[in-house]
Specification:
The chain is α/β, with parallel strands linked by helices. The protein contains twelve helices and 26 strands. Strand 6 and strand 7 form a beta hairpin. The longest helix is centred in the last third of the chain and has 20 residues. The structure holds flavin-adenine dinucleotide (FAD).
């Protein structure tokens, strides 16, 4: 019988942390497994560009942690971790207040025997002047919603008079300029999703083609190609797809400052913009560098081949951890696929820490199944690694898009199990058929 007193506390219920909590919860129950998250509901982070574009309704997509805790057998504690007392093995949480400022939970301390830090990453502005003040990021559902609301308000403001007032069309309307800084997966997927949203605007009286109204999207990348971490063929295919659909792609352009109505590059060239999204890099929350554990320049906790920090009671994984990529001369990338595999590994490794279960001394090994990027609802591009041959295969079109969706499905399967995932998928499909394509209200 497991020791009833051993508490595994996981901080961060994202792509990795929630999967781990659900898997461990099903095995050991709520007396052993505790999940802490600052939010009260979960959304799979790679869906945030769809929330931002309005093509995914957050109120239908998010999953309540309290409901998940009951279903999967872990205890959920809402609160934002602000620090750690390693001597007394306690996580300290900030108070939780309602949007109206009413305190719901006071500041608290949560005791642990084993702690797992999985608090993800946030946007790295690299100290670019004006970026924090004027650019929008896609780190959370709140930010994605903020982007969607600003987009809506600007579209109405920029719409020609015929749509706005029922008056004559304004052929002089300059249109809406959207700049996306950073053409990694987030930037590229957001650009593609905005194209999808643009196509649905006709139903809202804000159609871009009438009376000269337009939404212009510029994707700006500092490297010499977009998706520079992925194979070159993937970059060129994604760029051609985006350009053929009207996105302006600029490579080798480094943005030096951001203002309310324009961006400037290192050469002093100005790029007018009404709405700027910063997707140029990530870093872990700075709080991690104050825990007395080793961190890198991006505040990620440095972990060994078993995802342990130098403190034997503290593990870290996902975007907030720096782990070596076994057999490669680099670290594991910040990707949902990595967090997903690490969660499965830790489920076995941490089970061994609860007395009464078998010991394990295996190292984590990442198996790269390739990379997929969504370029809209019926398109994708990607490279898949042959499991047996180790060779990479190029995929595109609907097949790539369906494979991309299977990543999200794998997350739901890990969290909800087969029956509930099937029921949820069917329910969402039926709801989608009756709902508008783009959420603007
Ligand atoms: C728009 C977008 C598209 C992406 N597309 C892809 C893709 O196509 N493929 C891919 O592999 N990856 C993609 N990624 C990256 C992927 O989302 C991350 O690699 C993955 O989510 C990392 O998982 P995680 O569990 O480490 O962190 P997250 O999923 O970010 O979860 C972190 C959790 O910690 C919580 N938290 C944060 N701070 C605290 C705190 N102090 N206290 C308590 N809780 C806290 C957060 O609320 C959150 O629930 C994309 C990311 C974005 C933003």
């Amino acid at each position: 019988m497991p020791d009833q007193s051993h508490r595994v506390v996981i901080v961060g219920g994202g792509a990795g942390g929630l999967e781990l909590a659900a898997k461990l919860g099903r095995k050991f129950g709520p007396g052993h497994v505790f999940l802490i998250d600052k939010a009260e509901s979960h959304i799979w982070k790679p869906s945030l560009h769809e929330v931002a574009a309005g093509t995914l309704d957050i109120h239908r997509e998010d999953l309540s942690y309290f409901m998940l805790a009951r279903e999967s057998g872990f205890t959920f504690i809402q609160g934002e971790m602000q620090g750690l007392d390693r001597a007394s093995r306690e996580v300290s949480l900030l108070p939780v207040s309602s949007p109206a400022g009413l305190e719901i939970f006071p500041a608290r301390h949560v005791a642990y025997d084993t702690l797992v830090v999985a608090i993800g990453s946030k946007t790295n502005f690299f100290g670019t002047p004006g970026a924090r003040e004027h650019a929008i990021t896609l780190d959370s559902t709140e930010q994605a919603e903020r982007f969607r609301q600003r987009l809506l308000s600007l579209m109405v403001r920029h719409a020609p008079a015929v749509q706005r007032d029922g008056g004559p069309g304004d052929a002089e309307s300059p249109g809406l300029e959207i700049a996306i800084v950073g053409a990694g997966a987030t930037g590229v997927e957001l650009a593609a999703e905005l194209l999808e949203a643009r196509a649905g605007l006709v139903y809202y009286g804000l159609h871009e083609q009438s009376s000269g109204y337009g939404m212009r999207i510029t994707l700006i990348e500092g490297a010499d190609r977009i998706l520079s971490a992925l194979p070159p063929k993937l970059s060129s295919t994604a760029q051609s797809l985006l350009e053929s659909r009207g996105v302006k792609v600029l490579t080798g352009v480094r943005i030096a400052s951001v203002s309310e109505d324009h961006l400037s590059d290192k050469e002093g060239k100005r790029y007018p913009t009404d709405l700027c999204v910063w997707a140029a890099g990530i870093e872990a929350p700075s709080m991690l560098s104050e825990l007395g554990l080793e961190t890198n320049r991006a505040n990620q906790l440095v972990v060994d081949s078993r995802l342990r920090t130098a403190d034997p009671c503290i593990y870290a994984f996902g975007d907030c951890a720096q782990a070596r990529w076994a057999g490669q001369d680099t670290h594991l990338p910040a990707r949902a696929q990595v967090a997903h595999q690490q969660a499965s590994f830790l489920c076995t490794a941490l089970g061994a820490r609860i007395p009464g279960t078998a010991e394990t001394n295996q190292d984590f090994e990442f198996r790269d199944y390739g990379s997929l990027v969504s370029i809209g609802h019926n398109r994708g591009v990607g490279s898949l690694m042959g499991v047996m041959s180790g060779k990479s295969w190029f995929v595109e079109g609907l097949v790539a898009r369906l494979m991309y969706m299977s990543l999200h499905l794998a997350h739901h399967l890990a969290v909800l199990g087969f029956g509930r995932t099937a029921a949820l998928a069917l329910g969402r499909l039926l709801l989608k058929r009756g709902a508008p394509r783009v959420k603007l209200h």
